Amino acid sequence: DDKTATDELKPAADAPAQGKPGKLAHEISRRRTFAIIAHPDAGKTTLTEKLLLFGGAIQLAGQVKAKKDKRNTRSDWMAIERSRGISVVTSVMTFEYQDTVFNLLDTPGHEDFSDHTYRTLTAVDSAIMVIDAARGIESRTLKLFEICRLRDIPIITFINKLDREAQEPLELLDEIEKTLALDTAPMVWPIGKGRRFRGTYDLATPRIRYIDQDPAGQPVSGPDDPIIDTLMEPEEVGPWREEVSLVQDACGSFDLKAFREGTLTPVYFGSALRNFGVRDLLDALVSYAPPPRNQKAATRTVEAAEDRMTGIIFKIQANMDPNHRDRMAFMRVCSGRLTRGMKVKLVRTGKTMALSAPQFFFAQDRSLAEEAYAGDVVGVPNRGVLRIGDALTEGEDITFLGIPSFAPEILRRIHLNDAIRAKKLKDALREMAEEGVVQLFNPVDGSQPVVGVIGALQLDVLGDRLTEEYGLPIAFEAAPCDTVRWFSSDDAAALKKFLERYRSTIAQDLDGDYVYLAPSIYNLSSTQERHPEIKFANVKSVN
Ligand code: G4P
To answer: How confident is the model at residue 457 (pLDDT cuts 50, 70, 90)?
Structure first.
């Protein structure tokens, strides 16, 4: 492939909006909806803050960080979220840079890791993967990457903290290729690292960008330019030039198609803390990252540039205002243009609702969204009407596919101190499952339900809310299973037989789909071996 990075600098060449002239197509093609995936401490917060600074969304560095560490006094979040400093106001951040509208969706990386984190990744079109240059790929990065891979989300890699002790850049590339089975295309090459990190060399258009200096950088003739000799110790220059020729040959040039298909990642090196390399990332998002994708629905594919508005709810945040029991539903606009006040159909119930107060979120504030376009993420306040996966349309019955559930890693039973209120508990659990706080599995033999979560903090949130909101004092107990798997079979008779035989370890989720409650991982693999006619899955409904 002889395409070079510069050939591809035309914005969004294959935007679905292409061919449909007018404002709608233009608005949609200039949107980039993305997330940052990283292991805790890799620098996601620092990078977010610097990205927002470029976008003018915040005035001063330190504000996102302050939000993470301190309480938000303006808003009265739920007690537990306050005490842990979880920031819900930054669930999505909208900002503009170079005539591009960015929607940055937050994926909590710390102990508040949850089902929400996974679901959020279903609402983005691309992601930036931040890697700590000293630590390489870490467990959480890997997990989040695997979720991105399910949908072939294009990934831009940022190797951060070059200003500190770092692994060899070639080793880092090798690690990405091997661990993630992802091709790499370095776009810049670091000059020195740690205390001697001087900047980067742009591999496509020979140019040096110096740390802490004018980001435009200085054009050079190529890797042999004598300027480079002045930046390194004499014994370092030779190996550096060899490396550059190696990465230029071996990695070849950046291939936009492979990136868009999720099989190749452009790699940038920098330091978020020193605000170095951050603009490279924004430029990469503008030039290479895809505009809003088309969205698969049960009956057809909804194109982003269609005139009619459609949207999907992918996250629900409760208790934004405890006095009103409001819930904020986060909706990705999938097609068309949303205008404030428009009437939409909630497809699940067939009822009509008015979008009277859709909201945009910024680093610090929110504001009413007078209009929004495909790719945008808006908050829709509602009182428990909207659920995860809901479609809102201008009238068409559309069921969107692709908000997956992931097999929870933590499973519990709930002990209710007051048995008389079992019915209330049942209702409360169903509501929280609809909201996506927990996954709920009702055993087919009628025994106590099992709740499942991805992150331990979700259990605290569940316990806290059952007590405070529903007045149900509960305790968690061990569940009779270690893990769960959804199962199905093309062979109806075999499925029936399996259901009968394993009745005591089978439950149904909120949608009525069957799960196998595996008492142990060992049991799971032996059951799978014994029943090749049954398909087991740890993810539900991805396409
Ligand atoms: P996270 O959201 O991914 O968890 O990471 P965060 O940005 O909070 O960064 C984790 C730590 O790494 C912070 O230091 C931050 O200042 C530091 N850091 C981030 N990017 C860089 C970088 O490019 N170079 C260097 N040298 N450090 C970086 P901390 O000591 O935990 O917090 P703070 O006391 O500095 O606020």
So the answer is: confident
Residue 222 is assigned to a ligand binding site: no
Other CB atoms within 10 A of residue 105 CB: 23
* Cα 256 from Cα 287, distance rounded (Å): 10
Best probe residue, ligand 1, of 90, 164, 273 (max atoms within 8 Å of C-beta): 273
Candidate from 36, 37, 39, 41 with most ligand 1 atoms within 8 A of CB, to mutate: 41
Q: pLDDT tens digits, residue range 113-129?
A: 677 788 889 899 999 99
**Rg of the chain (C-alpha set):** 25
Taking only the tens place, the pLDDT of each residue in 127-165 is 999 999 999 999 989 989 998 998 899 999 999 999 999
Angstrom distance (rounded) from CA 107 to CA 92? 9
Contacts of 95 (CB under 8 A, 6+ apart): 51, 52, 55, 56, 57, 101, 102, 104, 362, 363
CA 10, CA 4: separation in Å to the nearest integer?
12
Question: Is any atom of ligand 1 closer than 6 Å to the C-beta of 90?
Answer: no
Specify the residue with its C-alpha closest to ligand 1, atom 16.
Answer: 273
Three-state SS letters, 253-289? CCCHHHHHCCCEEEEEECECCCCECHHHHHHHHHHCC
Q: How far is CA 8 from the centre of its chain?
A: 26
Distances (CA, A) of 338 to 255, 291, 309: 34, 17, 6
pLDDT (average), residues 73-95: 49
The tens digit of pLDDT for each residue in 100-110 reads: 999 999 876 55
**What number of H helices and E strands is found in the chain?**
15, 33
- Atom 35 in ligand 1: which residue has the minimum CA distance? 273
Q: Using a 6 Å cutoff on CB, does residue 49 contact ligand 1?
A: no
User: What 3-state class would DSSP assign to 359?
Assistant: strand
| Residue 42 CA to ligand 1 centre (angstroms) | 7
Interface predicted TM-score (ipTM) over 0.90: yes
Instruction: Report yes or no: 312 and 399 within 8 Å, Cβ to Cβ.
Output: no
Query: What's the whole-model pTM score?
Result: 0.85
Q: Which of 427, 449, 436, 530 is nearest to 487 (CA)?
A: 530
